[in-house]
Amino acid sequence: MDDIDWRPDPSLPIPLYRQIEEFMKRKIAGGEWTVGMKLPSQRDLAAAFQVNRSTLVTALEQLTSQGYIAGKSGGGTTIIHHQPERQEEAPPPPNWNAYVEDGVHYPNLPTIQTINRMEFDPEIIRLGTGELSPELLPQRQLQQLFAELARQHVPLGYEEALGSYALRSQVSAHLKTIGIAAPPSAILIVSGSLQAFQLISAGLLEKGSAMLLEKPSYLYSIHAFQSAGMKLIGLPMDESGLQLSHVERFKRQYDASLLYTIPTFHNPTGAIMGEARRRELLQTSRRIGLPILEDGAYEELWFDDEALPPPLRALDMHGQVLYVGTMSKVVSPGLRIGWVVGPQPVIERLADIKMQTDYGSSSLSQAAAAEWFGAGLHAEHCRVIRRQLKERRDCMLRLLDAHWSDFATWNTPKGGFYIWVTLHAEISMAALFERALKRGILINPGYIYDRSAKKQLRLSYSYASFSEMESSVRQLAALIGQLGNHLR
Amino acid sequence: MDDIDWRPDPSLPIPLYRQIEEFMKRKIAGGEWTVGMKLPSQRDLAAAFQVNRSTLVTALEQLTSQGYIAGKSGGGTTIIHHQPERQEEAPPPPNWNAYVEDGVHYPNLPTIQTINRMEFDPEIIRLGTGELSPELLPQRQLQQLFAELARQHVPLGYEEALGSYALRSQVSAHLKTIGIAAPPSAILIVSGSLQAFQLISAGLLEKGSAMLLEKPSYLYSIHAFQSAGMKLIGLPMDESGLQLSHVERFKRQYDASLLYTIPTFHNPTGAIMGEARRRELLQTSRRIGLPILEDGAYEELWFDDEALPPPLRALDMHGQVLYVGTMSKVVSPGLRIGWVVGPQPVIERLADIKMQTDYGSSSLSQAAAAEWFGAGLHAEHCRVIRRQLKERRDCMLRLLDAHWSDFATWNTPKGGFYIWVTLHAEISMAALFERALKRGILINPGYIYDRSAKKQLRLSYSYASFSEMESSVRQLAALIGQLGNHLR
Ligand SMILES: Cc1ncc(COP(=O)(O)O)c(C=O)c1O
Ligand SMILES: Cc1ncc(COP(=O)(O)O)c(C=O)c1O
């Protein structure tokens, strides 16, 4: 126990004593600090953690009251939790930490784990969050819809492998409105599009397969594919989305099996691929035999009335495209409802794996989603959301113009949630992330989406309120200024 | 296209022409039969499929009306779906079937795929299904609960990584009633216990790890662990559950990382591990350093008032046991809500992977589950279910006594859903499965749960109605008699 090389992190908005308490519990629960062990003196512990004596005492009091440790009358403090029956010969509890390190699945990046955790702090300003603000969610309509469900016979049993037929029919009709023809038998209901990616990597791709994708991309920020042993090969982008010039060479060079793309309101750059490039991509994909995985998460969130290019899947005459959609970005992420559209053998294979994975998605969510589309609530809701998101985008652009134009450039997204900002000069993004967090502002650094994107960050106008946007864009400008000073 | 070695299966209750239609669509969609190909003559096709000409014609008419094929004026039929722009140089659509075969995840056994599919045929008698009959589900109470939710503010956003705090608090209180002490921070909400197993195999176990488990076991019937590269090592059982004599040797021999057990109302045998053996198992596990994964799916479904032995987790003083529970077997499988209880680093690791896998479980289901426990509906519902399941068990036992005692033996389960039947002589279980299916009866052959269980089948009294039990137990007796005749 002598060499404690961990310290609480004052940049986190969690009290230091709580961080210490959690750290020590982990050591004990994980079997690293075993029962009967004596703790170092309070003075030494406080020094090791680099905190005040009083902070340490508060942490120890917490642990004492929860029965992890006890003061001995002769002085000193001892670990007493999980008291073994016969101390002398009792082996330590299993070393779960070794198990935690053994799994084949990669942990999330620390920055992402912090983001995931901090997003549930009600005080934080979420300037990076890829989610509709609660006030934009159709709370009222969904409450009504639940009342409606309460009058019906909600299915409570296990669902069909493809998902409830009622929902698949509704999704089929919905897809028609964006130009995609898909009968219910070509649709698999999933628990959000993220699950679709998991199923595809487990069910369709060989271990070690390479997948081409935009760089930066949403997919770099999760480890589903990497953990399944996939290699992700980034394609450069311009304002019209991924550049086609590298596709063929990379496909050959890496023997790629699939091309993943977010052609409409790309995450994180907000870019949209024009129709000409879509057609060219389909042609290339066909010629070189590289199927496409199209992510349409933001498809419906356009701001201007000019016609959007159709989804790749709508232009696909040859079964080259697997299409993934979701209710998360327009209706409600909490429903955890998405869908995959594709050739029947693929859909059935994915359905079989889904049965092995979780026996299908929540029937309650499926019933609510079917009711949402069936009651015709979707089109009107989209209209409202588009107008409000556009106002939010405009507000964010005005703020950036006013406060950031000296040191950064950005795009003007025509839909979706994101503005991709590039600073003129490189600063430590990790430091910016931490200093912003200290001030209660959560941002998404570009390196989450592309390790080499050191001057970028993704701002989102979908979540924070107008006044939060204002105050945080200002504060960030100051922080960036401080961090960049030594560069000037 | 000359050598079609597939035939429609007359034992399936799907019309032959539909099976042919599906088969041909798959060939076309999968790129095996390419556009422009001429089909063999109707006579030859009918012969290849071994069906009447009229059956074949019906199938071809279906395909024609859906635009897959067209009759040529000069005679003959051609595949026209996915008409390429320039026929001469157009490559075929991607060969999705190759992708389907490439995935790292194993497909379900054909028998299990058939079961999964046939369970949704409303005409079928489900004598093997591990699910409460719809009339036993708390439909009325849940409808009321949805009405209640409609008056509240249902969370619609992404949920915390561990799951909603409200639900974790309720689960914590619920676990206390079965003797398990777990604060909300030691609980991870999952989309059914099956997902917990997926997360554990991805997050805690090295590729190629060995896991000890009962033989037979529920876990052999899904491929989650095998697909993740785990080796499953079966331990022999007696009436008191898994035998301990082999645990230590197998742990050493296979370097096992985990022992999976269903100590209470085991699936498929219905066995229950006595308290003495539980304590001994914990001691052994501790001594040899083999943590336990305890599956408590049927824990609450006891029929008699004698005290049940406590869960292993309740007896565990040293953090050796990961406990998994679910709402599926008692309340509603469609909710897809379960939980994992364990040491904090393990729970946090699993939560991180869950975020990468599906961003959490349906908030709607979580809200409904929290409301279910919070409203105090659980205890009364359990009382009702136990009484009804006991009556069903007694009915099934009487039927077996009357019709099966000449050729089989079985146990008397004290809870849960299942009776594990052993025939005196070996017959072809695959043939019994098929012949029963032809008569509209779905059974679960023992080999799903243990490849060597050739004389066993799992009967369930939880799903079929009393009259369905009666007629199917009778019919099965006759079928088993026929299949066994040549053995006598
Ligand atoms: C491009 C894209 N696809 C998919 C998702 C995942 O959404 P869900 O799993 O909630 O459907 C997101 C969410 O951030 C996204 O940005
Ligand atoms: C022993 C056991 N565990 C777990 C499950 C899976 O239940 P769920 O994923 O619905 O919680 C089952 C279902 O058959 C089971 O029998």
Automatic annotation (TrEMBL), chains A, B:
It holds the Pfam family Aminotran_1_2. It comes from the Bacteria. The keyword Transferase applies. Keywords: Aminotransferase, DNA-binding, Pyridoxal phosphate, Transcription, Transcription regulation, Transferase. Its cofactor is pyridoxal 5'-phosphate. One of its GO terms (molecular function) is transaminase activity. Residues 14-82 form the HTH gntR-type domain. Gene3D superfamilies: Aspartate Aminotransferase, domain 1 (3.90.1150.10), Type I PLP-dependent aspartate aminotransferase-like (Major domain) (3.40.640.10), Winged helix-like DNA-binding domain superfamily/Winged helix DNA-binding domain (1.10.10.10). In the C-terminal section; belongs to the class-I pyridoxal-phosphate-dependent aminotransferase family. PANTHER family: HTH-TYPE TRANSCRIPTIONAL REGULATORY PROTEIN GABR, TRANSCRIPTIONAL REGULATORY PROTEIN. This is PLP-dependent aminotransferase family protein.
